[in-house]
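[[Per-residue structure]]
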Amino acid sequence: MKDKALTRAIVREFGPIQDVVQLEQLPLPPLAAGDARVKMVYATINPSDIITISGAYRSRISVPFVPGFEGVGAIIQAPDGARLPVGQRVLPIGSMGNWQTFKDTRPEWCFTLPDFISDRQAVNSYVNPMTALLMLTEALDFRPGQRILINAANSAIGKMLIRIANTLRLTPIAVVRKAENLALFDDFQVESVLNSGGQDYSQALERIKRSGGVDAIFDCIGGEESLTFAEVLIPGGQFIHYGLLSGKPVPPQFWRTRPDIRFMNFHLRQWIHSQEKPVVQRKIDEVMALIRDGIVHTDIATAFRLENIADAIDAALSGELKGKILIEI
């Protein structure tokens, strides 16, 4: 272990990701007592990484830090009694720090993986699939047959929400922004697909409202559109808000016009940190089964070596590649 070096991407000041992420190499430090050491294999670049690096959460995150919320690796060292044998593949979650060759973390934050899941599948199994599954099975006041509306439905997590909702016997309505995305759902079970940029969008929402409305809305956009979606929600319905693609918060008039709505900000991190390890492991196992059965799927665009992190970042920012950008470590 002493002759190994640690290569990592590090952020020493907040700002645009392409400007502030630096690559450095240093001697591998001794492992702290009680920690496990994971040799990382893959990590991902997610919007949450880019937002964090920008400084959006600087009130609770300080520099310097190693980015990367999502990654997969194998145990190379763990304390006695941790039940993490050398070679055990794990998801080291609960903190950032996956954009490096070795991640030291507490054993309770290392979650095991089944043999039928490949590393490239496993690295995409946390942020989006866990969020989708938890919103439908923990946040939603679930009843079979509920009608739910999902905006930005053409996103990776939007499609996962629809697929999982189908297995739970829910009825999804998908909303997209462009006509070209309407055909993406030919193989999905949806009541309808609405184009929010289309001329008949208002009439389509009105038809939904007249036909009984929706029981719940899964919103990752925020902003003024929240008011539009609230109009089709049944009295006392749920509005589960988990993203801010518009860059604008839900406006105050949302609550003034619909005080009956049960509103929730869903954050994966808060749920994970509020549960005991066996509960989280069971949910991870559920996600793995969904991946195995083809219900949850993540398209992978390409992979870049960690030493080429700048190229990986450029690819992620360009938006030209369809699918996840992986960092191979």
Q: What stands out?
A: The chain is about 30% helix and 25% strand. The first strand starts at residue 5 and ends at 11.
